[in-house]
Write a structure and sequence with these properties.
Order of helices and strands of chain A: HHHHHHHHHHHHHH
Helix content of chain B: 25-40%
Largest sheet of chain B: 8 strands, mixed
Number of strands of chain B: 12
Shape of chain A: globular
CATH superfamily of the largest domain in chain A: MetI-like
Distance between the termini of chain A: 11 Å
Number of helices of chain A: 14
Strand order of the largest sheet of chain B: 6-7-8-3-9-10-12-11
Shape of chain B: globular
Helix content of chain A: over 70%
Chains: A mainly alpha, B alpha/beta, C mainly alpha
Structural class of chain A: mainly alpha
CATH class of the largest domain in chain A: Mainly Alpha
Order of helices and strands of chain B: EEEHEEHEHHHHHEHEHEEHHHEE
Largest interface: A-C, 49 and 40 residues
Largest sheet of chain A: none
Number of helices of chain B: 12
CATH topology of the largest domain in chain A: MetI-like fold
Oligomer: heterotrimer
Number of strands of chain A: 0
Radius of gyration of chain B: 21 Å
Structural class of chain B: alpha/beta
Amino acid sequence: MLRYALTRIALAMGTVLLTVLMLVIAIRLIPGDPAAAIMGPRATPELRAAIEARMGLDQPVLVQYIKFLGNTLRGDLGRDVRSEQPIAQMVIEKLPFTLTLIAASLAWSVLLGVVLGFVAALRRASWTDRVIGTLSIAAISAPPFVIALLLMLLFAVHLGVMPAIGAGEPGDPADQLRHLILPAIALGTGWVGYIARLLRASLLEVMTQNHFRTALAYAIPPQRLYVVYALRIAIVPVVTVLGVGIGAMVSGGVLVEIVFSRPGIGSLIYDSVVTRNYPVLIATVMMTTSLYALAMLLADLVTAILDPRVRTAS
Amino acid sequence: MKEQQPANIDIRNLQVSYVGDDGRKLLALRDVSLTIASGEIVGVAGESGCGKSTLVSTLLRLPGDPANIFGGQVVMRGIDILQLSQSEMRELRGRDLAMVFQDPFTALNPVLTIGQQLVDVQHRMSIPRVARRAAALDALQRVRIADASRVMKLRPHQMSGGMLQRVCIAMALLVRPALLIADEPTTALDALVETEIIDLLQTFRADTGSAILVVSHQIDVLEALCDRLAIMYAGQIIECGELRTIIDTPRHPYTRMLLDCDPARLAAGARRLPSIPGQVSRLYAEPAGCAFVERCPRAVDQCANQVPPIQLDTSRFARCHLTPGESR
Amino acid sequence: MTKDDPSHLQSARHPLLVVSRRLPTSARLGAALVALALLAGLAGLVGFVPNDPYKFDFANRFAAPAWDHWLGTDNLGRDIFSRVVVGSGIAMTVSIAGVGIAMILGLMVGTAAGFGPRWLDSTTIFLLDSLRTFPTILLAMLVVVIAGPSVFTILVIVVVSLVPGYARVARTQTLALRNETFILAERSLGASPLRIICHHVIPNVFAPLLVIGCMDIPTVVAIEAGLSFIGLGVRPPEPSWGTLLQDGYVHVRATPWLLVAGSIPLALVTLGFTFLGEGLRDALDPKRRRS
């Protein structure tokens, strides 16, 4: 198990490093003069040179990359070019909002998805199964930002019962919870449908296997039979998919944050793209990719715990 | 140890059909009768497609089994278990009925340890968990697994086929069933391990007094193991009786050919292994005569037109038109 | 007596016929929706719409649906329905082109990785996996920053995010076939890798790729809509569904119809292609599992 964990950690780090490298190269490919783009009409030659030096644009890619990595490990993500604010601080301020949104969306969608998938598999071909199936399809039929827009239209604008903007008063958890509801529903809906279908298919597959037949032949009590003998194996694909899902939630979260004008990493990235604020862009994208890689790593580790066969496979 | 009364299992005139992939009704078992007394080992032999797997699954009647049982009874302790509901059948499974399956590699749950699974099958016994673990250890030792406490912590993918099959037999030992069904127990194993499994099944019988039904296409295994032998063809038992009687003086031409094909009894080295030409027929309707007529080297006119009679003898019966003299 | 009944041989007909007979209702519904979407897309491309989608009419802004404007008018008085139809042209073009190009590139990369030397394979896999860990929207934003927003940019993003998936399928199939005895036999007779790819790999990957491609189309439509929504994709006045949603968002208190008009076609297209894709997957699956 330890060996497996270490291998996966090394792989995750490798992927992040590679992604950031691709990022740095990509930024270099931007046509035009980035320093001018950032500074705009106020770009005096001294400022331009300062920017270039600070971003390391005048040096070879590899040097820039290593410098950047070195700085990051020390916790220095640079300073925002315009506001002079340390980027690390900007990111840390916004990160909790995004994390809460993702956590809330994940929590409710996984819970509901697993329950629905479980019930659908056990009551296969019944009326319940068909209803769950239809609902699952309906849930996946629109991307999160569209659901966000429709929810906003219905509940915030039309009915006026939910807040449409922001994350709520700081220091007021109840208010923040209220502001979390619509975005979390929007972000999680697609996942409920997806996970329900995935788990249903997975459970049905497990129940056709020989070892399940043996358990039936010995009349293992239903509770233990379906939860320990079936679900524990069937849930593995769901866990694996969650790793990817978190990345998808980051993507979807960006748009949902924009729709609800919610502060977070997503809107930070969006703003930095629109204003061509490259230092912030690099830092936030790296942060996000690391989160994503971490999520996939965790998913892999949990999979290895649930299904010991995986530990020896790779 | 649980006190469980051994019982006889009396299969009478069993008739089972299936709806095949093409939508047509396939006759899988036609008027199958067989008695397995407690403490007796009965073997069922035949090629693939003869119905022996259907026989096994009909006894267990697992949920989801698509078979249509349209005739006959299976009587155990005075009750026809075919009439029982699924929840009543659940009471029998893992208590009066136990099974050892063909492929030991996939028969056990891959994520749970052997110990956990052996403890789980004792779910009906009102003894504490500690006692169940002890019983599991004991069962592993009785199937001659050295280092049983280490094996308790292993998972199936870490073990060999022979060991896994022994674990499956240990599992059945723990419930001390009235009937143990072994479906091709040695088919997936190599020859050396085969002998051990045969040995273990005989020990099982000696220990528990259970009735044991062994289904296999390997005649040599059945010969080493069984007290009585039944030969199946196209959904019927075409010959059945005391083991030595059948093996030494087979009456039905099919039995004779089956025995001749057994590689274990080839007298001299042969270029080509003998085989029975043709394939087992799949029946969609009761035939007018004998189902074996097309492949039988001794068929006469009667065979195609008249259902062969059951010829009773002291220690066996056979469904054939030919008299003992003619079928030699 | 018991000879095999030849009636079962009827199934040896044209595979497409067999497949279509086995499609469940949901897949047929999906096929109908897909056909509708394609027709609408075609209409949008050629301009076969009831009203001019670009014509302003300030006197008639935010009109409710009526006979002259089936879905009402937007903030500049333009006919929403016509804009939706033109938007479907954009959505269908981008998604089909994107998936198509990605499939071809993916096939090339995947077969090259499968057939080539091990170092090529390992490097390719590593690159592809790294690409997969990059969330699409971030990738999109990066590309837009470099190249500026346009339909072409979207295409590039879409292709880049889809290629790893297709490449993997192609690679797996190539690797599986590479060591088959009959392939080795062919190669010993002088068959070039290209021939092997065309004759053996492509027919085998065709079905799974078709299914995946079908299910990827809604994803691409969503990416395009999302990017256009935040202004990084199709630019106004082009009526992508995303721009419609953006207008609807900005003017949400004035009219709900823009949002509705932008979301319903999106949902229908997603449902249509998903149902069709699943139906195809179950019908083409050799194991023919019925759930």
